[in-house]
From TrEMBL:
Record-linked SMART domains: Cdc6_C
Gene (UniProt): Orc1_0
Family: Belongs to the CDC6/cdc18 family. Belongs to the ORC1 family.
Summary of the function given for this chain in its UniProt record: Component of the origin recognition complex (ORC) that binds origins of replication. DNA-binding is ATP-dependent, however specific DNA sequences that define origins of replication have not been identified so far. ORC is required to assemble the pre-replication complex necessary to initiate DNA replication.
GO cellular component term, pick one: nuclear origin of replication recognition complex
A Gene Ontology molecular function term of the record: ATP binding
Protein known as: Origin recognition complex subunit 1
Pfam family of the protein (one): WHD_Cdc6
Keywords: ATP-binding, DNA replication, DNA-binding, Metal-binding, Nucleotide-binding, Nucleus
Organism, scientific name: Podargus strigoides
Cdc6 C-terminal domain residues: 135-215
């Protein structure tokens, strides 16, 4: 937090940003501030001259777009960082071809496509309408209950609610059991092996992020 390092003589900031300029230095300093114009507003020239300030309205806007794009697909911080890391690698590869120097949405989109490309996602996209609704119902039930396991009956209630919202006819319980069985057969679901019928417990065999990504354009 660069604002907190400010002193009247600015010796602390000067020394901090002078280190990376030393011969054979391998140090990189990344600093943030609460204002975009901090270097121009309060820094002496001898300090400001050692900074590379990427902040501009366009870059901040680009950063927000990237953040929203990633956050819309995953709430897992590790997955978000993986996406950003891969996007940076793609950008670096492009930079060697002299086509880009900063990470752009195209790099993020390419990284996301790589990370979420799997036979499971294709299976979801090629599933029947009610199979897709069943998967959405599972996500809805997981969010409601706060756990990643549910009974077929609980998912069925969510499925019926989603059908009503779309003005569609709801499947029967027998049809729901058949849907559950098909999704289990293609390994999208882990279905409890028992004779409990609608009280059988089901879990996703893939991450919720993958399911959400499969439905991204739907």
């Amino acid at each position: 937090q660069l604002d907190l390092l400010w002193t009247r003589k600015q010796n602390v900031m000067y020394n901090l940003f002078d280190w990376p300029t030393q011969k054979h230095s391998k140090l990189i300093i990344l600093a943030i501030a609460n204002t975009m114009d901090l270097p121009e507003r309060i820094m002496m020239n001898r300090v400001a001259s050692r900074l590379v300030c990427p902040n501009s309205f366009e870059i901040l806007l680009q950063t927000c777009h990237v953040s929203f794009q990633v956050a819309a697909l995953s709430g897992d911080a590790r997955r978000c960082l993986d996406i950003c890391r891969r996007a940076t690698e793609i950008c670096e590869s492009d930079s060697r071809k002299r086509t880009s120097e900063i990470v752009r949405m195209a790099h993020v989109t390419e990284a996301i496509d790589e990370m979420f490309s799997s036979p499971y996602i294709n299976a979801i996209r090629n599933a029947s309408l009610h199979e897709q609704i069943f998967l959405k119902a599972i996500l809805a039930e997981f969010r409601r209950a706060g756990v990643e396991e549910a009974t077929v009956q609980q998912v069925y209630h969510q499925h019926v609610a989603l059908c009503r919202m779309e003005g569609m006819q709801s499947p029967t319980l027998s049809e729901i059991m058949a849907i559950c069985s098909r999704l289990g057969a293609c390994r999208l679901l882990l279905v409890e092996s028992s004779n409990k019928y609608i009280h059988m417990r089901v879990r996703l065999n893939i991450s919720q992020d993958d399911v959400m990504y499969a439905f991204k354009d739907k």
